[in-house]
Amino acid sequence: MLHSTTINAPFDIVRRIIAEVDNWPVFFGPTIAAEASSLAHGSETLRLWARNGELDSVVKWSSTRRHRADGTRIDFSQDEPAPPLSRMRGSWTVRKVDAEATELMLAHDLSVAGDDDAFRRAESATDHNSTAELAAIKALAEDYGPTLQSHLVRTADDFSIPAPIGAVFDLLWGVTGWPELLAHVAAVDVRSEGENQHRFTMTLGDGSPGSHTVESVRVTDHDRWIGFKQLVTPDGVRGHCGTWSLAAENGTTQVTVRHLALLEPTAPANLPGLAARLGENLTRSSLGTLEAIRAHLAPQ
């Protein structure tokens, strides 16, 4: 199965969107979280979490990718394809048309453990997802051009809590308790919940006209890591995701919270100020949450 599109953007911009998997949650709507671990000889292992279409479920898989040195091709294969798939592999091929145009091709080779109907469903899903991915890459490359990377906002903050890791995790994951724990959260409504995943809306503020509601989906590797993505972002922000990483250390819990946001295209002169303000707001919100958890678990 082969899909292709011509993108009115230089080769390097298109290649970088495909290569840098850590940015995919803010680039692609279905992707919630992504982790990449480099291996030898141009290979890497990926862990990906994505929404299953419009369904209230999240699928997780790991893949191995091999990069051609000149950046023109990335081969991939899922390590343990989710049923009914028994094999899923393919390639991204990037071809320079001229200085301002690039052809992008996405190929898949799949098989299923099932009947013809199962194969047709898997093929239809792959066709739908491939078409959507190519359209998203085309829009990103053409809308942002060489300014794409400067529209990304990253924050990383460390925090120590003198409490067991399980207790810290429970408060971070248990969003239904946030209205009592966090002064800026007025209400939380869990819309769906499954194994190691949930989707919820959260009302921020005190119910006055200035209050607003956000919707998020989160996944977890229990006690170690929580990945989150905002499904509806505020004005001026195209995508927002992040992670809470937890580690036990000498009776305390070390928490690292990271945010990644993609600003809507804006004039270069306005970018530094917008990025700085957004980064400050994200850091302030995260550290406020962690300070409230520390006060609850280890009151002075």
Keywords:
300 residues; alpha+beta; 7-stranded antiparallel β-sheet; 27% helix; 45% strand; globular
Plain-language structure description:
With 300 residues, this protein is of the alpha+beta class. The protein has 6 helices and 14 strands. The protein has a 7-stranded antiparallel β-sheet with strand order 1-7-6-5-4-3-2. It has a 7-stranded antiparallel β-sheet with strand order 8-14-13-12-11-10-9. A hairpin with a 4-residue loop joins β12 and β13 (237-249). α1 packs across α3 (116-144). The longest helix has 29 residues, at 116-144. The chain is globular. The N and C termini lie far apart (62 Å). 27% of the residues are buried. The mean pLDDT is 92.
Describe the SSE topology.
Layout: E1 2-7, H1 11-19, H2 24-27, E2 31-38, E3 43-51, E4 58-67, E5 73-78, E6 85-98, E7 101-112, H3 116-144, E8 152-161, H4 165-173, H5 178-181, E9 185-194, E10 197-204, E11 212-221, E12 225-232, E13 237-249, E14 252-263, H6 271-297
Antiparallel strand pairs: 1-7, 2-3, 3-4, 4-5, 5-6, 6-7, 8-14, 9-10, 10-11, 11-12, 12-13, 13-14
Helix pairs in contact: 1-3
Helical segment count:
6
Q: Give the DSSP E fraction (strand runs of 2 or more residues).
A: over 45%
Number of strands: 14
Rg, please? 21 Å
Termini Cα gap: 62 Å
Structural class by helix and strand composition = alpha+beta
The spatial strand order of the largest sheet comes to: 1-7-6-5-4-3-2
The biggest sheet, with number of strands, parallel, antiparallel or mixed sense and barrel status, is: 7 strands, antiparallel
Mean pLDDT: 92
